Amino acid sequence: MSALSDKYMRGIPMKPYDMIREGLFILAGVAIVVILLSAVWGFPRIPPLTLKQVAITAPVAFTERTLSYFDGQSGLQTYGPPYTGDRENAQRVGPICPACWTGVAHPTDFRQALVINPLKSAAVLNPDIATALDSYDKATPAQQKAWTDAYGAALGKATAKDGKLILATGDYGPVPTLMNGMLKLAQAGLLEGALVQGANPNYAPYNTDFTLPLYYLGGDRIMGTVADHFDEQGGQWGMSHVAGPYPGAWWLWPYAFLYQIPAIGNADAADLIAGMIIAAFGLILFFLPFVPGLNRLPYIIPVYRLIWRDWYAKYPSGDPTRDPANSGFDSDRGQFPSTKPG
């Protein structure tokens, strides 16, 4: 050690400590626990849900989701910061409103970003989509609403066969062409790429922002159905339950537990309340050494005596210099002649 460290450590009792042996014991212990838990609770790898998979297996649900974005009826249109300026839906607890403080950091028109832009890309290759877009744009707002309302009503009774929608005959204008265009784009596996690159064209082809595809999958109709299939709904402690058997992401249980308290889970600002509680606990732990009363817990609950039981068995006071029998202790070096510092 250096002269400075020798001076700093002078008078401090030391005992031998083999860090390599300790590390090997811990590594072996963790490996054994992981192998045993994997053998008992292992589960197959389940690939991530994709828009292609949803469009192929549940075309009606996919189209319903697409129509909600297209006609502007999705809740994302009034989501609030950081995407839109509508602060009414921003989560707040009294004067605490982090979303309001940050403001609209990522202004997004979800109708344009999730439907119109992908359709414009598809229109380059499909003249029918280009014509349908033009017809829809030239129609009056009242006519547009009549088309989408009629199509939405028919979609509620629609069926699917071989990945195609079967709807009752009606006056839907160009809406079926546009919705079928989105459905085919997704079934071909091209929609996610169009959404990712469209989120920030300046970073193409290196954009890794998957916010838009994730929003597309959101909602009870799609993500809620999948979560229910894997027993991952909020009421099933879904945040801490990875797809497959337990124990899942057990380290998230304190956060997930808060949502099981009705006063928190049913609140409009549930996420903010849970986050504030976890943050408060984190700050308490961080400042624990400085909080009067709490900083005495290690002395009240002497776990350290269990860890260093061999030392305290030999020196009950913990300080060998206080034991008259230990006259051989070198207070200058902070050790006994027969003890080598580790």
Protein model, in words:
With 342 residues, this protein is mainly alpha-helical. It has three domains: 71 residues, no CATH class; 169 residues, no CATH class; 57 residues, no CATH class. It has 18 helices and two strands. Strands 1-2 form a two-stranded antiparallel sheet. α6 packs across α9. The longest helix has 23 residues. The N and C termini lie close together (11 Å). The model has no long low-confidence stretch (mean pLDDT 83).
| SSE run | HHHHHHHHEEHHHHHHHHHH
Whole-number radius of gyration?
Answer: 31 Å
**Helicity range:** 40-55%
Name the structural class.
mainly alpha
Total domains, how many?
A: 3
Strand content: under 5%
The largest sheet has its strands arranged as: 1-2
Which regions have little confidence, pLDDT < 50, spanning 5+ residues?
none
| Oligomeric form | single chain
Task: Characterize the biggest β-sheet.
Answer: 2 strands, antiparallel
Topology readout:
Layout: H1 3-9, H2 19-41, H3 51-57, H4 59-70, H5 98-102, H6 110-123, H7 127-138, H8 141-155, E1 159-161, E2 164-166, H9 175-187, H10 191-199, H11 211-217, H12 220-229, H13 253-258, H14 262-265, H15 270-286, H16 297-300, H17 303-307, H18 309-314
Helix pairs in contact: 3-4, 3-9, 4-9, 6-7, 6-9, 6-10, 7-9
Keywords for this structure?
342 residues; mainly alpha; 3 domains; two-stranded antiparallel ribbon; 2 strands; 51% helix
Quick overview of this protein structure:
By secondary structure, the chain is mainly alpha-helical. The protein has 3 domains: 3-40 and 290-322, no CATH class; 51-219, no CATH class; 230-286, no CATH class.
